[in-house]
Every structure is written in C-alpha cells, then in structure tokens.
Amino acid sequence: MAKSVTEQVRNGTPVDGVDVLGALSPSRAGDFKTCPLMYRYRTIDRLPEPPSPDAVRGTVVHKVLEDLFDLPAGERTPAQAESMIDAAWAHVREDDERAASLFADDQDEARDSWLASCRTVLAKYFDLEDPTALEPAERELYVETLLDSKLLLRGFVDRIDIAPDGAIRVVDYKSGRSPGEGFEAKALFQMRFYALVIWRTRGVIPAMLRLIYLGNGEMVSYAPDEQDLRSTERQLEALWAAISRSTESGDWRPSKSRLCDWCGFKEFCPEFGGTLLPLPVKAVLVHQGPEVVDLDLDE
Ligand code: SF4
Predict the structure, then answer these.
(1) Is the CB of 39 within 6 Å of ligand 1?
(2) Which of 18, 112, 130, 281 has a Cα-to-Cα distance from 181 of 20 to 30 A?
C-alpha cells in the first residue's frame, strides 16, 4: 500500500539517529531485482507515475480490510465491508493526489465500473477468511530493523496474528491474482523480508507467512525457518551492494521482462525506444547520504 512514513508514528524508533548504510523496503528491493532502471527512475529521480487503477483498487480494499477490524467481531460481514468502500475511496482520494486524479469529472461510468471491481475483489476476501473469528494483534504495522551491516530494513505489514501459544502469523493482502508457477518465490521474498524484520526485532521467527490473493481468491502460506531468513538477509545485503555499485557507476541497466507491461517509464527506457534521462546529480548525492532513501513504502 502506498503509505508515507510521515503518515505513521515512527518517531523515536530504535534506529533513529543511528548512521545507516542505506535503507530498503520490500517494494524498492523488488524494483531493483525487477529492473535497476525502474528502481532509479522511481527512487532516485522520483519521476511522477500515472495513477494505476489496479494499485488504487488495492489501496481502497486494504483500507476497508484495515477498518473492518475496528468493528466488533459480529459486525464484520460482507455487507458491512461493501458499505465501507465509498468512505475508503473518499479517504484515499483525500490522502493521495494521484489517486484523486484517477477519474475525470465526466468519467462517471468508468469510475462506477471500477468501484464495482473493488466490491468484487473485497467479496473474495470472505471466501478465504472469516473475520468474525479473527482478532489481529496488529494492522498496518510499521516495522524496521538495522542489520549488523547497518542496512536498514523497513516496511508496513498488513496484519499480524498472534496465536495463544505466541506463534506469529504475518498476513499480506494482494488485490491481484496469485503468481503463476515459478513466480511464487518472488512473491514470498516480500514476506521473508518482513519475517526477517520481525525475527530481528522480536526474537521470534514467524510460524507462518500468508499471502491472500483477492484477485482470484487464493492463499499462499509458507513456514519460514532460520536458514531461510539468514539467506534472505544475505540476499538483501548483496542487493544493497549492487545498488551501491550502480549508484557509484551511474549504470542503471534496464532489464526487460513481462513486468514492463506495468512500467510507467517506457518513454524514458532504451528498451522501448525511449531516451535515457540524465542522472539528477543532486538526487544521487542525497541517495548516498545517511538520511537516504525510500520514504515511500508502496506495497
Ligand atoms: S520498461 Fe521495462 S526495462 Fe524499461 S525501465 Fe520499465 S521495467 Fe525497466
């Protein structure tokens, strides 16, 4: 979910005031893994991107699911959730100018059809979980940890459930479809990232990582172990080393894949006949500094 750190209470966290090598969220780590040039345009150049109906739908549905658990358990019904969509959409428009510009004033039909798709996606949630039987321990939780290498990991976890025996389940809602065969590892990378942060901050390895795909009503669950999380830590440090090398060399190569279909930077991408933009020198200097990086923790 698009969420700015400043929206959340994070003053006085353990790593404030500590020099960091750099900072990564799962989405920015995923950007670099997908395409270094996309990472550069999004994180260093901070180029504006057009609002995406899919992304804004995800934000609205997440907002409803977050607010739903404020209600007493017996009121968390499909009808109640559906009735909360308009308020969530109003909240998202108010909060995010890009989302507010998704539909022009004369696009009532397109907007209504899109709102109907929000209802369809939200309804799928009730096929997968019974929110009347759940009491999440945390929702939209900001988490961060500083690795021994001084790499700061941070992000927002959609939901954490804690069983009576203390077992932790980390849950993430996706408004899209579950990944096809061979792409589960990429989806689980984000969850391993969160599991690593929780392990480092709470000293407990989450018993379960769960991705809830509302686009096609599927769940992917995975039980991480210590070896997984140590490997994730090494991968993230290697990723940051690669980002640092690109920062120093100025070489942010495009990496073409089927994910280019969703990229908003094609006009500046040589792989699509676009002209590479010059690096913004000031942005590079800021990127290299300790205050760095990645204040937008989109999921
Ligand atoms: S269009 Fe593809 S290759 Fe080009 S910047 Fe975007 S993701 Fe990278």
Answers:
(1) no
(2) 130
Coil vs helix vs strand at 172 = strand
What does the pLDDT read at residue 19? 76
* Residue whose CA is at the smallest distance from ligand 1 atom 4: 269
pLDDT at 262: 87
Phi, psi (5° rounding) for residue 140? 45, 55
CA angle 191, 183, 124 (to 5 degrees): 70
Nearest C-alpha to atom 5 of ligand 1 is from which residue? 38
pLDDT for 12? 45
* Weakly modelled stretches of the chain, pLDDT under 70: 1-18, 181-183, 282-299
Element (H, E) at 251: none
Q: Which residues have CB under 8 Å from 110's CB, separation 6+?
A: 103
CA of 192 to the centre of ligand 1 (A): 25
